[in-house]
Design a protein that fits this description.
This protein is an alpha/beta fold. The protein has one domain. It has 12 helices and 10 strands. The radius of gyration is 19 Å and the shape is globular. It comes from Cystobacter ferrugineus.
Length: 352
């Protein structure tokens, strides 16, 4: 079997999987990280995980995502997750912007993207799903970060970034984590970290605004005001929870985390802080699936797509490269499918 997938597990996940194998019924949580175009590299894997692995699921499965991660996971709550993922990839690739588009323009395009993916029945499907419990991470802004004037918002973000160098706890002065979800009192995410979290039920009125807010990158998209939620301006959930270094709760099973990197960066402001990476505490029950370095080397330009591609590549070249990434990602799904059928994936799991 070619080494397209890298598999790493925390000690509790490794023990459970070695005892029982890779069983869908043993999965308690699926996280989804921020990262915009990076999510395209998971397209083929997502189609197998969402469309095959969880097909016979019956007990509740908690899905928690920020930004593009919440949009991906919303597909699992739809009637046909594979068709939704296909709409997701094509609509994301088809985005096109003039140089330096306004936040209003990007927000409008993002709303149209979500409407395309969810379709007219998406709200009902997600809210009434028999076992998928969607959790959408957002941030309610305080002070300057809530303003739309570019220079004032930039100043607010700069103050947040400076404080974050000293401690992530300082971000609570600028942002409040708000989690919109369908889990009610059964949510396992009640002890995330020292930063305060507010839980709000997802409803027909706030589902799409919450998803839009979760992906509303500061300075790139406009802030969002969400009905049936605490008043204020909401922005990208990835500011606090970029790759989700979270307490995933105390369930009896394990956490399946398809991710584009073999490591986890806690917050948006931590991307340049090489010393700040997720430690082992929150990942005891996690199986992290990620593309191998060999797989990434074969992608266009030898890397996973990112948001700078919108600026450095002409639209036609970008779209062609991103479609090639989606096509190559089928190898990840095929390898996961084959490994499940033969049992060989368990043999390849390394300690996280």
């Amino acid at each position: 079997m070619s080494a397209n997938l890298s598999l790493r597990a925390g000690p509790e996940a490794l023990r459970l999987i070695r005892e029982r194998g890779l069983r869908a019924e043993d999965v308690d949580v699926v996280p989804g990280a921020s990262g915009g175009p990076k999510s395209l590299v998971l397209s083929g894997l997502d189609r197998v995980v969402f469309g095959e692995f969880f097909r016979a699921r019956s007990r509740p499965l908690h899905l928690i995502g920020s930004s593009i991660g919440s949009w991906r996971l919303a597909c699992l709550g739809l009637a046909d997750p594979v068709a939704a993922l296909e709409r997701f990839a094509e609509a994301y690739i088809a985005q096109s912007y003039p140089p330096r588009p306004s936040p209003e323009r990007v927000s409008q395009t993002s709303q149209e993207f979500l409407d395309t993916v969810l379709g007219p029945e998406g709200d009902s499907s997600i809210l009434g799903h028999p076992w998928a419990r969607l959790h959408v991470l957002t941030n309610r802004c305080r002070g300057l970060s809530a303003l739309e004037q570019r220079y004032l918002q930039t100043l607010g973000l700069a103050l947040g970034a400076l404080g974050n160098v000293v401690s992530r706890r300082t971000l609570g002065l600028h942002l409040e984590r708000v989690i919109f979800h369908t889990a009610g009192d059964t949510t396992p995410f009640t002890r995330l970290d020292a930063l305060r979290s507010v839980h709000v039920p997802l409803t027909r009125a706030n589902l799409r605004p919450a998803l839009l807010a979760s992906g509303s990158i500061p300075l790139v998209l406009s802030g969002v005001r969400i009905p049936e939620a605490p008043a204020g301006v909401y922005r990208d959930g990835g500011i606090l929870d970029y790759h989700l270094d979270l307490d995933f709760g105390a369930g009896q099973g394990w956490v399946l985390y398809p991710h584009f990197y073999p490591y986890v960066v806690p917050g948006w402001f931590d991307k340049s802080l090489r010393w700040r990476r997720a430690g082992p505490t929150n990942f005891r029950r996690v199986l992290l699936l990620s593309p191998s370095p060999e797989f990434v080397a074969r992608l266009p330009h030898g890397r996973i797509p990112d948001r700078t591609d919108f600026e450095r590549l002409p639209d036609a070249e970008r779209m062609r490269a991103w479609r090639q990434v989606v096509a190559e990602s089928e190898r990840l799904g095929e390898e996961f499918h084959e490994g499940l059928a033969t049992g060989r994936l368990v043999e390849r799991i390394q300690p996280l």
